[in-house]
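Morning!

This is the sequence you dropped in the shared folder:
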Amino acid sequence: MKICIISGTFTNMRCGVGDYTYRLSVELERLGIGLDIITSYNSEVITDGRINICPVVKKWSLLSLPLLLKSIKATKPDLIHLQYPTQAYKYRIMINVFPVFCKLMIPEIPLIVTIHDVKTAHVLNKLRLVTFLFCAKKIIVSAEEEKAYLIKLFPFLKKKFELIYLGSPIEVHSPGEVRRNQIRRDLNMGENEILACHFGYILAKKRIETVFYAVRRLLDDGYKIKLVMISEFAPPHNRYHARLKSLAGRLNLDKQVAWTGYLDKPEVSEYMASSDICVQIYQDGVSLRRTSFIAALEHGLPTVTTKNKDLPGGLKDRYNVMAAPVNNPGALAAAIRELIDSEELRKNLSRNALVFAERFSWKEIASSHARLYNRVKS
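The structure's back. C-alpha coordinates below.
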Protein backbone atom coordinates (compact mmCIF):
# COMPACT_ATOMS: atom_id res chain seq x y z
CA MET A 1 0.00 0.00 0.00
CA LYS A 2 1.18 3.52 -0.78
CA ILE A 3 0.03 6.62 1.09
CA CYS A 4 0.46 10.28 0.15
CA ILE A 5 0.56 12.34 3.34
CA ILE A 6 0.00 16.08 3.01
CA SER A 7 1.20 18.30 5.84
CA GLY A 8 2.01 22.00 5.68
CA THR A 9 4.86 21.36 8.10
CA PHE A 10 7.29 18.55 8.73
CA THR A 11 9.98 17.97 11.31
CA ASN A 12 12.49 20.83 11.70
CA MET A 13 9.77 23.41 10.95
CA ARG A 14 8.86 24.09 14.62
CA CYS A 15 5.25 22.97 14.46
CA GLY A 16 3.71 20.26 16.59
CA VAL A 17 1.76 18.79 13.68
CA GLY A 18 4.95 18.63 11.62
CA ASP A 19 6.72 16.69 14.38
CA TYR A 20 3.70 14.41 14.70
CA THR A 21 3.66 13.74 10.95
CA TYR A 22 7.34 12.83 10.98
CA ARG A 23 7.02 10.37 13.87
CA LEU A 24 3.93 8.80 12.31
CA SER A 25 5.71 8.47 8.96
CA VAL A 26 8.71 6.71 10.50
CA GLU A 27 6.48 4.16 12.24
CA LEU A 28 4.33 3.58 9.15
CA GLU A 29 7.47 2.96 7.10
CA ARG A 30 8.54 0.33 9.64
CA LEU A 31 5.23 -1.43 8.98
CA GLY A 32 6.12 -1.63 5.30
CA ILE A 33 3.75 1.08 4.10
CA GLY A 34 5.06 3.16 1.21
CA LEU A 35 4.97 6.91 1.85
CA ASP A 36 5.29 10.17 -0.01
CA ILE A 37 5.15 13.35 2.10
CA ILE A 38 4.07 16.54 0.36
CA THR A 39 4.99 19.53 2.50
CA SER A 40 6.14 23.15 2.37
CA TYR A 41 9.26 24.16 0.52
CA ASN A 42 12.05 24.31 3.09
CA SER A 43 15.76 23.99 2.38
CA GLU A 44 16.35 22.58 5.87
CA VAL A 45 13.73 19.84 5.81
CA ILE A 46 15.11 16.69 7.43
CA THR A 47 14.90 13.30 5.75
CA ASP A 48 16.65 10.06 6.60
CA GLY A 49 16.28 8.59 3.12
CA ARG A 50 13.64 6.02 4.04
CA ILE A 51 10.70 8.33 3.32
CA ASN A 52 10.21 10.28 0.10
CA ILE A 53 9.86 13.94 1.09
CA CYS A 54 8.42 16.34 -1.49
CA PRO A 55 8.90 19.90 -0.14
CA VAL A 56 7.26 21.58 -3.13
CA VAL A 57 4.60 24.02 -1.88
CA LYS A 58 6.05 27.50 -1.40
CA LYS A 59 2.75 29.09 -0.41
CA TRP A 60 -0.51 27.31 0.45
CA SER A 61 -2.59 29.65 -1.71
CA LEU A 62 -5.11 28.88 -4.45
CA LEU A 63 -2.35 29.41 -7.00
CA SER A 64 -0.59 26.35 -5.56
CA LEU A 65 -3.61 24.06 -5.87
CA PRO A 66 -2.71 22.77 -9.39
CA LEU A 67 0.82 21.99 -8.18
CA LEU A 68 -0.53 20.11 -5.17
CA LEU A 69 -2.89 18.01 -7.28
CA LYS A 70 -0.16 17.33 -9.85
CA SER A 71 2.25 16.24 -7.11
CA ILE A 72 -0.33 13.87 -5.66
CA LYS A 73 -1.01 12.27 -9.05
CA ALA A 74 2.74 11.82 -9.60
CA THR A 75 3.06 9.73 -6.44
CA LYS A 76 0.28 7.34 -7.59
CA PRO A 77 -1.03 6.71 -4.07
CA ASP A 78 -3.70 4.32 -2.87
CA LEU A 79 -4.83 6.88 -0.29
CA ILE A 80 -4.36 10.57 0.51
CA HIS A 81 -3.98 11.50 4.18
CA LEU A 82 -4.18 15.21 5.04
CA GLN A 83 -2.99 16.69 8.35
CA TYR A 84 -4.94 19.79 9.42
CA PRO A 85 -4.30 22.45 10.60
CA THR A 86 -0.62 23.39 10.43
CA GLN A 87 1.10 26.74 10.87
CA ALA A 88 2.04 26.84 7.18
CA TYR A 89 -1.56 26.90 5.95
CA LYS A 90 -2.19 30.07 7.94
CA TYR A 91 -5.72 31.32 7.17
CA ARG A 92 -5.61 30.68 3.45
CA ILE A 93 -8.62 28.93 1.97
CA MET A 94 -6.78 26.64 -0.46
CA ILE A 95 -6.41 23.68 1.86
CA ASN A 96 -10.10 23.91 2.77
CA VAL A 97 -11.28 23.72 -0.84
CA PHE A 98 -8.69 21.05 -1.65
CA PRO A 99 -11.03 18.14 -0.68
CA VAL A 100 -13.63 19.36 -3.18
CA PHE A 101 -11.08 19.33 -6.00
CA CYS A 102 -9.88 15.91 -4.87
CA LYS A 103 -13.40 14.57 -5.17
CA LEU A 104 -13.87 16.16 -8.60
CA MET A 105 -10.47 15.49 -10.19
CA ILE A 106 -9.15 12.32 -8.52
CA PRO A 107 -12.28 10.63 -7.13
CA GLU A 108 -10.66 7.21 -7.37
CA ILE A 109 -8.21 8.07 -4.55
CA PRO A 110 -9.87 8.12 -1.10
CA LEU A 111 -9.10 11.04 1.22
CA ILE A 112 -8.57 10.73 4.97
CA VAL A 113 -8.21 13.87 7.10
CA THR A 114 -6.75 14.12 10.60
CA ILE A 115 -8.19 17.20 12.31
CA HIS A 116 -6.01 18.17 15.25
CA ASP A 117 -8.30 20.86 16.67
CA VAL A 118 -12.09 20.80 16.53
CA LYS A 119 -13.88 21.63 19.77
CA THR A 120 -11.71 24.57 20.86
CA ALA A 121 -11.25 26.09 17.39
CA HIS A 122 -12.65 29.55 16.65
CA VAL A 123 -16.14 29.43 15.15
CA LEU A 124 -14.85 30.63 11.76
CA ASN A 125 -12.21 27.90 11.76
CA LYS A 126 -14.91 25.35 12.58
CA LEU A 127 -16.80 26.45 9.46
CA ARG A 128 -13.66 25.72 7.44
CA LEU A 129 -13.94 22.06 8.42
CA VAL A 130 -17.18 21.47 6.50
CA THR A 131 -15.49 20.46 3.23
CA PHE A 132 -13.38 17.89 5.09
CA LEU A 133 -16.41 16.41 6.82
CA PHE A 134 -18.38 15.92 3.62
CA CYS A 135 -15.62 15.08 1.13
CA ALA A 136 -13.33 12.80 3.15
CA LYS A 137 -13.88 9.06 3.54
CA LYS A 138 -12.74 9.19 7.16
CA ILE A 139 -12.04 11.90 9.74
CA ILE A 140 -9.49 11.11 12.43
CA VAL A 141 -9.63 12.94 15.77
CA SER A 142 -7.37 12.46 18.75
CA ALA A 143 -9.64 12.64 21.79
CA GLU A 144 -12.98 11.22 22.90
CA GLU A 145 -14.44 14.68 23.48
CA GLU A 146 -13.53 15.71 19.93
CA LYS A 147 -15.32 12.70 18.46
CA ALA A 148 -18.37 13.22 20.70
CA TYR A 149 -18.50 16.90 19.68
CA LEU A 150 -18.52 16.04 15.97
CA ILE A 151 -21.15 13.33 16.41
CA LYS A 152 -23.36 15.81 18.26
CA LEU A 153 -23.10 18.30 15.38
CA PHE A 154 -23.22 15.77 12.54
CA PRO A 155 -24.92 12.59 13.81
CA PHE A 156 -25.57 11.44 10.23
CA LEU A 157 -21.78 11.37 9.63
CA LYS A 158 -20.84 9.49 12.80
CA LYS A 159 -19.51 6.46 10.89
CA LYS A 160 -16.85 8.72 9.37
CA PHE A 161 -15.28 9.68 12.68
CA GLU A 162 -12.34 7.65 14.00
CA LEU A 163 -10.44 8.06 17.26
CA ILE A 164 -6.67 7.56 17.13
CA TYR A 165 -4.63 9.01 19.98
CA LEU A 166 -1.76 11.40 19.42
CA GLY A 167 1.78 10.57 20.42
CA SER A 168 4.41 12.84 21.84
CA PRO A 169 7.08 14.13 19.44
CA ILE A 170 9.55 13.91 22.34
CA GLU A 171 11.14 10.49 22.49
CA VAL A 172 12.18 9.54 26.03
CA HIS A 173 15.94 9.97 26.30
CA SER A 174 17.38 8.99 29.67
CA PRO A 175 20.16 11.43 30.59
CA GLY A 176 21.97 9.17 33.03
CA GLU A 177 23.00 10.23 36.52
CA VAL A 178 26.00 12.33 35.44
CA ARG A 179 24.04 14.38 32.92
CA ARG A 180 21.07 14.69 35.29
CA ASN A 181 23.31 16.06 38.03
CA GLN A 182 24.90 18.46 35.56
CA ILE A 183 21.51 19.82 34.48
CA ARG A 184 20.46 20.35 38.07
CA ARG A 185 23.78 22.07 38.85
CA ASP A 186 23.34 24.32 35.82
CA LEU A 187 19.95 25.29 37.26
CA ASN A 188 21.58 26.04 40.63
CA MET A 189 19.46 23.49 42.41
CA GLY A 190 19.90 23.53 46.17
CA GLU A 191 19.93 20.56 48.51
CA ASN A 192 16.46 18.99 48.94
CA GLU A 193 15.04 21.46 46.41
CA ILE A 194 12.22 20.21 44.19
CA LEU A 195 12.55 20.85 40.46
CA ALA A 196 9.23 21.39 38.69
CA CYS A 197 9.15 21.68 34.92
CA HIS A 198 6.68 23.07 32.41
CA PHE A 199 7.03 21.96 28.79
CA GLY A 200 5.40 23.49 25.73
CA TYR A 201 4.84 26.75 23.93
CA ILE A 202 4.56 29.77 26.23
CA LEU A 203 1.31 31.33 25.01
CA ALA A 204 -0.91 34.00 26.57
CA LYS A 205 -3.98 31.76 26.25
CA LYS A 206 -2.38 29.28 28.68
CA ARG A 207 -2.14 31.94 31.43
CA ILE A 208 1.22 30.72 32.70
CA GLU A 209 0.95 33.45 35.36
CA THR A 210 -1.12 30.98 37.37
CA VAL A 211 1.93 28.74 37.78
CA PHE A 212 4.09 31.68 38.88
CA TYR A 213 1.59 32.73 41.54
CA ALA A 214 1.38 29.13 42.77
CA VAL A 215 5.17 28.88 43.04
CA ARG A 216 5.25 32.17 44.95
CA ARG A 217 2.71 30.78 47.46
CA LEU A 218 4.79 27.64 47.96
CA LEU A 219 7.95 29.65 48.55
CA ASP A 220 6.12 31.85 51.05
CA ASP A 221 5.04 28.67 52.86
CA GLY A 222 8.67 27.61 53.18
CA TYR A 223 8.84 25.04 50.38
CA LYS A 224 12.05 24.69 48.39
CA ILE A 225 11.01 24.64 44.76
CA LYS A 226 12.38 25.82 41.44
CA LEU A 227 10.52 26.00 38.12
CA VAL A 228 12.18 25.38 34.76
CA MET A 229 10.28 26.50 31.67
CA ILE A 230 11.26 24.16 28.82
CA SER A 231 10.34 26.26 25.83
CA GLU A 232 11.46 28.83 23.34
CA PHE A 233 11.69 32.15 25.19
CA ALA A 234 12.17 35.50 23.44
CA PRO A 235 11.13 38.52 25.56
CA PRO A 236 12.60 41.08 23.10
CA HIS A 237 10.33 39.78 20.33
CA ASN A 238 7.31 38.42 22.22
CA ARG A 239 5.20 40.71 24.39
CA TYR A 240 3.74 37.89 26.46
CA HIS A 241 7.20 36.50 27.17
CA ALA A 242 8.27 39.98 28.23
CA ARG A 243 5.25 40.24 30.56
CA LEU A 244 6.09 36.91 32.17
CA LYS A 245 9.70 37.93 32.69
CA SER A 246 8.52 41.16 34.30
CA LEU A 247 6.06 39.26 36.50
CA ALA A 248 8.81 36.91 37.66
CA GLY A 249 10.78 39.97 38.72
CA ARG A 250 7.84 41.53 40.59
CA LEU A 251 7.21 38.25 42.43
CA ASN A 252 10.92 37.91 43.30
CA LEU A 253 11.11 34.69 41.29
CA ASP A 254 14.15 35.61 39.20
CA LYS A 255 16.25 32.97 40.95
CA GLN A 256 13.44 30.42 41.17
CA VAL A 257 12.31 30.40 37.54
CA ALA A 258 14.70 29.28 34.82
CA TRP A 259 14.14 29.49 31.06
CA THR A 260 15.84 26.98 28.79
CA GLY A 261 15.07 28.65 25.48
CA TYR A 262 14.62 26.46 22.41
CA LEU A 263 16.06 22.96 22.84
CA ASP A 264 16.29 20.06 20.44
CA LYS A 265 14.17 17.05 21.30
CA PRO A 266 16.80 14.94 23.13
CA GLU A 267 17.62 17.93 25.35
CA VAL A 268 13.93 18.49 26.09
CA SER A 269 13.72 14.88 27.24
CA GLU A 270 16.83 15.24 29.39
CA TYR A 271 15.43 18.28 31.18
CA MET A 272 12.10 16.55 31.76
CA ALA A 273 13.82 13.41 33.03
CA SER A 274 15.92 15.56 35.39
CA SER A 275 12.81 17.11 36.97
CA ASP A 276 10.96 15.84 40.03
CA ILE A 277 7.45 16.89 39.01
CA CYS A 278 5.74 18.51 36.03
CA VAL A 279 3.12 21.29 35.92
CA GLN A 280 1.05 21.47 32.70
CA ILE A 281 -1.89 23.89 32.72
CA TYR A 282 -4.53 24.45 30.03
CA GLN A 283 -7.33 27.02 30.07
CA ASP A 284 -9.83 24.57 28.61
CA GLY A 285 -8.66 21.78 30.89
CA VAL A 286 -6.33 18.92 30.11
CA SER A 287 -7.07 16.88 26.99
CA LEU A 288 -5.48 13.77 25.53
CA ARG A 289 -4.73 15.77 22.40
CA ARG A 290 -2.16 17.80 24.37
CA THR A 291 1.14 16.23 23.34
CA SER A 292 3.03 18.24 25.97
CA PHE A 293 0.93 16.50 28.62
CA ILE A 294 1.48 13.12 26.96
CA ALA A 295 5.24 13.78 27.01
CA ALA A 296 5.09 14.29 30.78
CA LEU A 297 3.24 10.99 31.26
CA GLU A 298 5.68 9.11 29.03
CA HIS A 299 8.56 10.40 31.15
CA GLY A 300 6.83 9.03 34.24
CA LEU A 301 6.64 12.49 35.78
CA PRO A 302 4.19 13.07 38.64
CA THR A 303 2.12 15.71 36.87
CA VAL A 304 -0.17 18.47 38.07
CA THR A 305 -2.62 19.73 35.47
CA THR A 306 -5.92 21.60 35.20
CA LYS A 307 -9.48 20.45 34.61
CA ASN A 308 -12.71 22.25 33.76
CA LYS A 309 -15.32 19.65 34.66
CA ASP A 310 -14.33 16.02 34.27
CA LEU A 311 -10.94 14.57 33.46
CA PRO A 312 -10.59 12.72 30.13
CA GLY A 313 -11.37 9.00 30.25
CA GLY A 314 -8.65 6.99 31.97
CA LEU A 315 -7.24 9.88 33.98
CA LYS A 316 -7.92 9.77 37.72
CA ASP A 317 -7.07 12.46 40.25
CA ARG A 318 -4.38 11.33 42.69
CA TYR A 319 -4.01 8.04 40.81
CA ASN A 320 -2.14 8.92 37.60
CA VAL A 321 -2.39 12.72 37.69
CA MET A 322 -3.04 15.60 40.09
CA ALA A 323 -5.86 17.89 38.96
CA ALA A 324 -6.66 21.47 39.94
CA PRO A 325 -9.35 23.83 38.59
CA VAL A 326 -8.27 26.35 35.96
CA ASN A 327 -7.27 29.89 36.95
CA ASN A 328 -6.84 28.97 40.61
CA PRO A 329 -3.29 29.57 41.91
CA GLY A 330 -4.28 28.45 45.41
CA ALA A 331 -5.63 25.10 44.25
CA LEU A 332 -2.65 24.62 41.94
CA ALA A 333 -0.26 25.35 44.81
CA ALA A 334 -2.17 22.91 47.04
CA ALA A 335 -1.84 20.12 44.46
CA ILE A 336 1.89 20.74 44.07
CA ARG A 337 2.27 20.93 47.86
CA GLU A 338 0.61 17.53 48.23
CA LEU A 339 3.08 16.03 45.76
CA ILE A 340 6.09 17.57 47.48
CA ASP A 341 4.92 16.32 50.87
CA SER A 342 4.40 12.71 49.78
CA GLU A 343 7.15 10.71 48.12
CA GLU A 344 4.78 7.74 48.04
CA LEU A 345 2.20 9.75 46.09
CA ARG A 346 4.87 10.84 43.61
CA LYS A 347 5.97 7.23 43.08
CA ASN A 348 2.39 6.02 42.62
CA LEU A 349 1.56 8.76 40.12
CA SER A 350 4.77 8.05 38.21
CA ARG A 351 4.10 4.32 37.99
CA ASN A 352 0.46 4.73 36.97
CA ALA A 353 1.25 7.49 34.47
CA LEU A 354 3.65 5.17 32.64
CA VAL A 355 0.97 2.47 32.42
CA PHE A 356 -1.60 4.96 31.13
CA ALA A 357 0.89 6.34 28.58
CA GLU A 358 1.23 2.97 26.83
CA ARG A 359 -1.80 3.84 24.68
CA PHE A 360 0.17 6.73 23.19
CA SER A 361 3.04 4.59 21.88
CA TRP A 362 3.91 5.33 18.27
CA LYS A 363 3.83 1.63 17.46
CA GLU A 364 0.17 1.44 18.51
CA ILE A 365 -0.68 4.72 16.75
CA ALA A 366 0.87 3.53 13.48
CA SER A 367 -0.88 0.16 13.74
CA SER A 368 -4.22 1.93 14.22
CA HIS A 369 -3.56 3.99 11.09
CA ALA A 370 -2.57 0.91 9.09
CA ARG A 371 -5.79 -0.86 10.07
CA LEU A 372 -7.83 2.19 9.05
CA TYR A 373 -6.00 2.50 5.71
CA ASN A 374 -6.77 -1.15 4.95
CA ARG A 375 -10.45 -0.72 5.84
CA VAL A 376 -10.83 2.36 3.65
CA LYS A 377 -8.99 0.81 0.72
CA SER A 378 -10.96 -2.42 0.87
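Headline: The first strand starts at residue 2 and ends at 6.

More detail when I'm at my desk.
O.
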